[in-house]
Specification:
- The protein is an alpha/beta fold.
- It has 14 helices and eight strands.
- An eight-stranded mixed sheet has the order 1-2-4-3-5-6-7-8, with helices on both faces.
- α3 packs parallel to α11 and α10 packs antiparallel against α11.
- The protein is globular.
- The termini are far apart.
- The N terminus is likely disordered.
């Protein structure tokens, strides 16, 4: 109670700084009374009216969270992944149970030519190749952009050294159906893609989530877990523990965090509308080894949120669920939020994790 009261006093004090500064500057004739009035009106619109509009506008909340309106690059050619340096890849579309069309890329492993010789680029060939027994990884991307965004293509080129890669766009992203997004709907898309791949592959199935996609992957896997379905391993790149903390720590929120009504107009309305992304709950219910990757200089999702998720996972997960690992990348490398794939050691990190997960699988099989 005392802590809440103290926080309210601090917020009120900080919130009064701008008008007090303006009045002081006017008193000493540094700025005119007209300037003060204009700046006060702008401050009122920015710090009072805008948060109130945000509180009551579901569409604005959705747009700010998912950034699905940012279709980048503008000259996107989804039909031709080879234009982005992804040879032996195909673009295709899947229709979900609720009549949503999802755009998908299937990227064959680099070893495919050694295995098959001449590549027959037909849908039948690609689907049969998916069942060749090699490891498969599904990539769940973050908000903004699409499956062909530059940093994602960089990652695919790394992953295909060891996996078949499946990358797709949730509804409202890329060239998938333009349907109003929500956490529940996007989780449905994740589950649909996972099941589609699982029905066709004979190899070990891995999941890679990035940023917002880390929460979507954990949420979807926690649901699949209840049906007895689990992946071989999960890799979380730049994750956060829950959306409430991410919203408070996001760099662009610094302008509003000091407001006494920040929680009332920003975080609480989003939670009530179902935008919770509670990864720190979902991670407890995923029976699979999990590797967390995070860069110290990540300014979009601060590394401390990734560490909070890790600590909560350590607290709530049972030993039988599989190992939980955290790999931290030094900020001096400049990987930030999107470019951990540029780390020279990333191939070895992934390879070691895959070996560890398969050792677990052998142990589980021998104990049954």
């Amino acid at each position: 109670m005392q802590s809440n009261f103290r926080n309210i006093l601090i917020n009120l004090t900080v919130g009064s700084i701008i008008p007090c500064m303006l009045c002081t500057l006017c008193f000493f004739n540094v700025i005119s009374i007209v300037t003060v009035k204009v700046l006060l009106v702008i401050s009122f619109l920015l710090f009072v009216i805008l948060p109130l509009i945000f509180k009551f506008s579901y569409k604005l909340q959705t747009a700010v969270l998912f950034l699905n309106f940012a279709h980048l690059p503008y000259n996107a050619d989804y039909a031709n992944p080879h234009k982005y340096g992804l040879q032996n890849s195909r673009n295709f579309y899947l229709k979900t149970d609720d009549d949503i069309t999802l755009g998908v890329w299937q990227i064959l492993p680099l070893t495919i030519e050694d295995d098959y010789g001449v590549i027959n680029e037909t849908d039948q060939f690609f689907e049969e190749a998916l069942g060749d027994g090699k490891d498969v990884i599904i990539y769940y991307h973050g908000n903004a952009g699409a499956r062909l965004s530059g940093h994602r293509v960089e990652l695919y080129k790394i992953l295909r050294k060891q996996f078949h890669v499946i990358a797709f766009d949730y509804r409202s992203y890329g060239d998938s159906t333009n349907d109003q997004p929500s956490e529940t709907k996007l989780v449905k898309d994740c589950i649909f893609i996972y099941n589609w791949v699982a029905e066709r592959t004979k190899g070990s199935l891995f999941v890679w989530g990035h940023s917002l996609g880390t929460s979507l992957s954990l949420h979807s896997l926690s649901i699949l877990q209840k049906r007895g379905i689990e992946p071989t391993g999960v890799i979380l790149e730049s994750p956060f523990n829950n959306f409430r903390d991410e919203c408070s720590e996001f760099p662009l929120s610094w302008m509003f965090r000091f407001l006494p009504w920040f929680s009332y107009t920003i975080t609480e309305p989003m939670y009530k509308n179902g935008f919770t992304f509670e990864s720190d709950k979902y991670i407890c219910n995923v029976d699979a080894p999990i590797l967390i990757l995070h860069a110290q200089d990540d300014h979009v999702v601060p590394i401390k949120l990734g560490k909070r998720l890790y600590e909560e996972g350590k607290r709530c997960r049972r030993h039988s669920q599989g190992v939980l690992m955290f790999h931290e990348f030094d900020g001096k490398h400049g990987y930030q939020h999107k470019f951990i794939c540029r780390a020279p050691e990333i191939n070895g990190i992934i390879r070691d994790f895959v070996s560890l997960t398969k050792s677990r699988g052998k142990s589980l099989n021998s104990s049954r």
